[in-house]
Specification:
Sulfite Oxidase, Chain A, domain 2, 2 domains, Immunoglobulin-like, alpha+beta, 13% helix, homodimer, 429 residues
C-alpha cells in the first residue's frame, strides 16, 4: 500500500482536491460532488439522518438459485444493450451488426456484443467434421483436424478487429450514436497457434510469396495475405475471451491478422493456399479497394490506421453542467497508441487525455479526460497518435487527399456537438 | 516485422527446429508434426493429392442472418461448456458454481462462465431503485443513485477473483477436474470508481479505521474492510468485461477488493458504513475464519496467496504420447506472478514455464511449457512464485502448519497423474 493511501493523508487534504488535480483537471477547489451537483442528493440525504435505510423488496425474499443460469446472461434491465443492426439490413446474409460502443466500459468487448460482418450468413460448423488444409507452394501439405491444430504451441493476445468500412465516407452524417459511426470495431483476447509455426511445418518453397485464405462459409470468402504478415504475428485462432469462438466469429477456427482490415481475418478458415501471386479474388478487386478522386483505386490497403472516438458523452446521450468524465477508445493497426488529445472547444485547443494502462499493441486503448462543462454549446473531439508518429486526421484533411468516392479506411476524427440543454449529437451534421 | 520472420530465414531452417528450441523444449531434431504424430494425417493427406477439397454442407447453403442473435451465444457444439454446479447444490440459494477452467484459454473468463458464490440467492435489482449509502464516521454522508455514481472518474483493471474455499482441505481428493478443484476462481476486466474518491468526498473522521460493506441480497452479506485497503486499490464496480455486471456478479454495483478473498468484494452493494471497529459479522466469525491445529482460529485472513494449476492436460482429459503443451493459470493476491515452474516427473525436477505477456498485478497469468511425453506414467505439477518472493507450497508443507481442520485458504500445488493410456486424473488420490 502506498503512503499516499494512508488515511492521514486523506484527512489532511481538502476534499477531492488532490484527486481532482491528480486527474489533470482544471477543477481546482471544491469537491467533485459539489461540481457534479448530485440532483437526488438533497432529497435522499434525509433518509440517512432520520430513519434506518430503506429495505428493498429483493432483501426480503430469497434470490434465484445458484446455477439457475449454467451459462449466464445479462440483467433483464440491460435488454436494450444489444448489437446495432441497420433496420434494412437485419434480414440479409451479407450485412453487418455493430458493437454498442457507447454502452461499454474498459477495452474488452464481450463476445455477445462483438461486431459482425458476414458475406454469406453464419454457418453452423461441426468442429469434428471441419478440416484446415495448408497446401500449394509447400514441401509437405497438411490437412488438420481441430484436435490436431490444438496440439501445436499456443499464444494469447488482446487485439482489436475493425471492418474497413467503419464508416463509409458518405455515411458520416447519417449516424446518431458512436455505434452507428464506428461500431464495426471490437476488441478481445484471442488464443490460437502462430501461423508461422504451421508454415514451418509444411516448409515453404522458394517461390512462395502470398497465402490465399478461404472460409468455409457460403461465400467462400477468399483473401490474399502477404507472406511477411503470415510469418509475423498472424494467428490461427480458436478461442476468444477465454471460450471457444462464437459462430459469428468463425467457429471453430479463424485467421487473425492483427491490425489488418477485418475481412482479411478469414472466419471459418478451411484452406491456406501458399502461392506466388495474389488470387485477385472478388473481395480484393470488386470489393475492399479504395476509390481515389482521379478515378484510380488503391488495392491491398491492409492496415487500419490510428483512430479514436469519444464514447461518453456521445450521440443521443444527455449531460448535465458541471463535472463530466470524457472517455473513449483509441487504436492503431500499426502498434501502440502513444497519445490521445481531447478538445472541448471545437478543436481550437487540445489537451492530453489519460491512457488506461497497460497500453497494448494493436488493442483498444481506453482514454479519459476530466471536464467541467460550463453549460454553453460546444463541440468535443478526440485525436489519436500511434507509435509511428501518425496522427489521426480531421475529415477535411482526410477527404482533401482521399476524396469522397472512397468507402473504406475512413479513420477521421469524430466530432460530437453538445447543445445548451446537454443533448449530444453528430457533429458532422 | 523482425528479420527472424523473413521467409528466407524459415527456408534455411530445419523444419520447426528453431521454433521448438525457441519454445524452450528438449525436442531437438524433427518437426512438431512428427513428434505429434498427427493420427488423421496419413488418411486425410490423400485428399490433397487426388481430389479438390471436400466441400462441406455449410458451404452449399446460406448461413444464418446477420443479427439473428442480437446478443450472441456460444456454438451449439459447445453446449457442455457450462458452469460446474455440484449435483446436490444446484437448488440451493447458498451455494457455488465453478468456472470450467480446463475448457478455457487465455486469462479472461467470459461473463457467462464466471464462478458464482451466493449466500441468499441472486437478487433481480432494478438499478433505477438501487441506492448506495456511504455513512458513519464521515463529515458528509452520501446517498448515491447509479447515475450519480457513474459521474465520478472511472478506472478499468484486469483482476482475478477467488473464493477463499477453493477447495477446502478435506475436498482435495474428491475433485476430478481442474474446475472441481479450483474452479472458484475467475478473471475479468472491471470498470468502476475508486472507493478512495468517494471516501474523499464524504470526508473521514479521525476515528475512522474500518468500512463495513453490506449487500442488498436476502443474506445482507456484511464484511468489514480495513480502511487502508479502501484507500488503496478498492473499486466500486459497475462493469465487467466491457458490459454491465451480470446479476450473479452484483448488478448494478459491487465492491471489488483486488487480491482479497472473494466474499469481501460485496455484491449488490448498498451500504458502506465507516466505523472504528470491525462489525464481527456472521461472515467474519461463524464463517470465513481459518481453524488451526491447536483449536484456535485465524480471523481476517484477507489475502489470497500465490497459486497455480495446470488446466491442460488436467483431470478427465486424455493425452497421446509425443508433443503436448502444458498450460495453466497462476495468480497472487499480493501482486505480480514472477515465475511458474513445471515438473513432469512428480516434483523431482522443475523447469521454468513461459509466462504470457503482459503479466498484470492480481490478475490471472497464463503459463505454458512444451513437453514431449514418453508414454510412461508420471505426475505433472506447477508451482507459482509472486513478486514478494512467496512460493506456492505443496499440500504436505501447507497442512504441516495449517492442519486439516481448516476449510479456507488452501493454495497448495495441484498434482495431475498421467496413466500409461494417457488418462489424466487427480494426483491427490
Amino acid at each position: 500500500m502506498s503512503d499516499d493511501a494512508a488515511p492521514e493523508a486523506v484527512r489532511r487534504t481538502p476534499r477531492s482536491r488532490r484527486q481532482i488535480l491528480a486527474a489533470g483537471s482544471a477543477l481546482v477547489g471544491g469537491g467533485l460532488a459539489e461540481v457534479i451537483a448530485l440532483p437526488a442528493r438533497a432529497e435522499t440525504m434525509g433518509g440517512i439522518e432520520n430513519m434506518p435505510p430503506h429495505v428493498p423488496r429483493w432483501m426480503k425474499e430469497p434470490g434465484a438459485d445458484v446455477g439457475s443460469q449454467l451459462y449466464g446472461q445479462p440483467s433483464e434491465f440491460e435488454k436494450d444493450v444489444i448489437r446495432n443492426v441497420p433496420k434494412n439490413g437485419k434480414q440479409y446474409t451479407s450485412s453487418a451488426s455493430r458493437t454498442p460502443l457507447q454502452e461499454l466500459d474498459g477495452i474488452i468487448t464481450p463476445n455477445g456484443l462483438f461486431y459482425e460482418r458476414h458475406h454469406g450468413g453464419i454457418p453452423a460448423i461441426d468442429p469434428a467434421q471441419h478440416r484446415l488444409m495448408i497446401h500449394g507452394l509447400v514441401e509437405r501439405p497438411l490437412l488438420l483436424t481441430m484436435d490436431e491444430l490444438r496440439r501445436f504451441p499456443t499464444e494469447s493476445h488482446i487485439y482489436f478487429l475493425e471492418c474497413s468500412g467503419n464508416p463509409g465516407f458518405e455515411a458520416v452524417k447519417q449516424g446518431k450514436t458512436a455505434s452507428d459511426l464506428v461500431g464495426l470495431a471490437s476488441c478481445g483476447e484471442w488464443t490460437g497457434v502462430r501461423l508461422k509455426t504451421i508454415l514451418e511445418e509444411v516448409g515453404l518453397k522458394p517461390e512462395a510469396k502470398w497465402v490465399v485464405a478461404e472460409g468455409a462459409d457460403a461465400a467462400a470468402l477468399t483473401r490474399s495475405v502477404p507472406l511477411e504478415k503470415c510469418l509475423d504475428d498472424a494467428l490461427l485462432v480458436f478461442s476468444q475471451n477465454g471460450e471457444r469462438l462464437r459462430p459469428q466469429q468463425g467457429y471453430p477456427v479463424r485467421l487473425l491478422l492483427p491490425g489488418f482490415e477485418g475481412n482479411m481475418s478469414v472466419k471459418w478458415l478451411r484452406r491456406l493456399n501458399v502461392v506466388a501471386e495474389p488470387a485477385y479474388s472478388r473481395e480484393e478487386t470488386a470489393k475492399y479497394t479504395d476509390s481515389m478522386p482521379d478515378g484510380t483505386a488503391r488495392q491491398f490497403t491492409f492496415t487500419m490506421e490510428a483512430k479514436s472516438i469519444i464514447t461518453r458523452p456521445s450521440g443521443t446521450q444527455r449531460i448535465a453542467a458541471g463535472f463530466n468524465e470524457i472517455t473513449g477508445l483509441a487504436w492503431s493497426g500499426r502498434g501502440r497508441i502513444t497519445g490521445v488529445e481531447v478538445s472541448v472547444d471545437g478543436s481550437t485547443t487540445w489537451q492530453p487525455a489519460v491512457l488506461q494502462q497497460p497500453v497494448l499493441s494493436r488493442a483498444f486503448t481506453r482514454f479519459r479526460y476530466p471536464w467541467a462543462w460550463d453549460g454553453r454549446p460546444t463541440v468535443i473531439l478526440s485525436r489519436a497518435t500511434d507509435e509511428t508518429g501518425y496522427v489521426q486526421p480531421s475529415f477535411a484533411d482526410l477527404t482533401a487527399i482521399r476524396g469522397m468516392k472512397s468507402f473504406y479506411h475512413n479513420n477521421a476524427i469524430v466530432p460530437w456537438r453538445i447543445a445548451a440543454d446537454g443533448e449530444v449529437s453528430n457533429g458532422y451534421v
